[in-house]
Amino acid sequence: MMYWIVFALFTTAETITDMLLSWFPFYFELKIAFVIWLLSPYTKGSSVLYRKFVHPTLSNKEKEIDEYITQAKDRSYETMMRFGKRGLNIAATAAVTAATKGQGVLSEKLRSFSMQDLTLIQNEDELQLDGADDTHTRVCSHRNARELVITPHAFDACI
């Protein structure tokens, strides 16, 4: 774990030093040698750097770090609650809007299929209607008005 903490710090510092020191002769070779020194079990470079620099710094700032974590946790809880309430309000508004708009469309569709229209067709055996494009639509009716079948071809059989 010490290696990964030191390596993360090295990677952070590397982004700045690459821009500033990449012109320096043997810069990239020195970086590779440093990473090998960090990784090597014989030199234990990451352990040395962690124990001399990282651990003392973290120990001195431990209370500040804990306070920051607590503040971040509280803020994140408040933020999530605020976004959750906003999301629920948006979803509720969308559901009510869709229900009110959908109800009007549904009632118009139901009015066009009233039982009076269906009972007029119920007594006829077969009707042929001519469309605007000269196609025939065959309407077959059954004893029950709910079994009304409309087929787009004149020669289709009623189901």
TrEMBL record:
| An example Gene Ontology molecular-function term | taste receptor binding
Coiled-coil regions, chain positions: none
**Pfam families of this UniProt entry?**
TB2_DP1_HVA22 (PF03134)
Where does the source fall among the domains of life?
Eukaryota
**Spans traversing the lipid bilayer:** 23-42
Q: Which GO cellular component terms, listed alphabetically, does the Swiss-Prot or TrEMBL entry include?
A: cytoplasmic microtubule; endoplasmic reticulum membrane; endoplasmic reticulum tubular network
* Cell location: Membrane
A single GO BP term for this record reads:
endoplasmic reticulum tubular network organization
Which keywords appear in this protein's UniProt record, sorted alphabetically? Membrane, Transmembrane, Transmembrane helix
Q: Which InterPro entries match?
A: TB2_DP1_HVA22
Q: How does it sit in the membrane?
A: Multi-pass membrane protein
Q: Which family does it belong to?
A: Belongs to the DP1 family.
Database matches in PANTHER family: HVA22-LIKE PROTEINS, RECEPTOR EXPRESSION-ENHANCING PROTEIN 2
Q: What is this protein called?
A: Receptor expression-enhancing protein
Q: Which organism is it from?
A: Cyprinus carpio
Its organism's taxonomic lineage begins at: Eukaryota, Metazoa, Chordata, Craniata, Vertebrata
